[in-house]
Write a structure and sequence with these properties.
alpha/beta; single chain
């Protein structure tokens, strides 16, 4: 059976299901949630053939590519894959922790070449390109509490919108600036450009291909094999004519702190129409290599449960 494009897969979960989970968490805390999560995660692991295969494929690629630096003692199997699913469940709890104030700034380490303090001082905004590796919610939540600069987050799935709507229903004080989009059109671009000129920031992920134009991709090596990366985030960054940063936030398994990687990519990304792909290669290579290095260091925090190396079809 041919695996569907990630955006065409039916999302498993609903708004009310998320609300129930959040309420249980609110009144029962972490331990009760973990008790509930264990059978739920096991159910999704056993019934989710494609995600399970994608998990195993990814973990084994990490092990093979990293060689002597592999985070695994032997080739990963179903136990490691289940633990990968389990970490995804804990990732959802960490999102909630961040937005309800249970993660303090003392639990976050700056590991990148730029700090949010630096962004606060500059007059112009910028674009932050993240991924589904780690937990961007922690970085966004802490930044929203400490800094005045607004972060406009572009989301492409109803599930992300449902999660944040449910979170706001449970805790009305939560203030998340989400912009749900199906396509990056001229109207959206003008809106974002105005906001950046006012000193705001745009957050978008760069590790998933387009929902509406899956063929609009560019290949770049990742873990030893060419993978398709979306052109959209980079074209948007070029049109916005603003500084570009990479943003990753990952939980350190050794001490439980969060490692925040905010790295300056370029002051302005220029992509001439006739040589767009060639001009994009240096910054995309830097993004891919950063993603690769962090994926090897934090493999269980990779939350793309689909065949990442599958070629997109038009």
């Amino acid at each position: 059976m041919v695996e569907k494009h990630w955006a065409k897969k039916k999302e498993r979960g609903s708004y009310w299901g998320i609300v129930i989970v959040l309420r249980v968490y609110q009144y029962g805390g972490h331990w009760l949630m973990r008790l509930i999560l264990a059978p739920v995660i096991t159910y999704f692991f056993l019934t989710g053939g494609d995600p399970r295969r994608a998990s195993l494929d990814f973990l084994r690629r990490v092990h093979s590519f990293a060689a002597e630096q592999s985070p695994f003692a032997a080739e990963p199997g179903w136990r490691q894959s289940w633990y990968h699913f389990w970490q995804f469940g804990l990732h959802a709890l960490a999102k909630i922790d961040a937005w309800v104030g249970k993660v303090s700034k003392n639990q976050v380490r700056n590991c990148g070449d730029t700090h949010f303090d630096d962004l606060e001082k500059q007059p112009q905004g910028g674009i932050l390109i993240g991924s589904h590796l780690g937990n961007l919610e922690v970085a966004r939540a802490l930044a929203s509490k400490k800094y005045t600069r607004r972060m406009n987050v572009l989301v492409f799935t109803q599930h992300a919108q449902s999660f944040n709507r449910a979170l706001k229903d449970v805790n009305p004080k939560v203030d998340i600036d989400l912009i749900q989009v199906t396509d990056i059109d001229m109207g959206l671009t003008i809106l974002l450009k105005e906001r950046i000129e006012q000193g705001e920031f745009v957050v978008i992920v760069g590790d998933r291909t387009s929902v509406t134009q899956p063929g609009q991709t560019i290949e770049q090596d990742f873990l030893g094999k060419p993978a398709a990366f979306a052109l959209g985030p980079w074209i948007l960054a070029s049109v916005l004519e603003c500084p570009v940063y990479f943003l990753f936030c990952l939980k350190n398994p050794d001490d439980g702190h969060y490692d925040l990687y905010l790295n300056h990519a370029c002051d302005q990304l220029k992509l001439p129409r006739k040589s767009r792909r060639e001009a994009l290669q240096p910054v995309l290579k830097a993004y891919s290599e950063t993603l690769e290095k962090l994926a090897i260091r934090y493999p269980y925090q990779w939350f793309n449960f689909f065949d990442f190396w599958k070629k997109d079809s038009q």
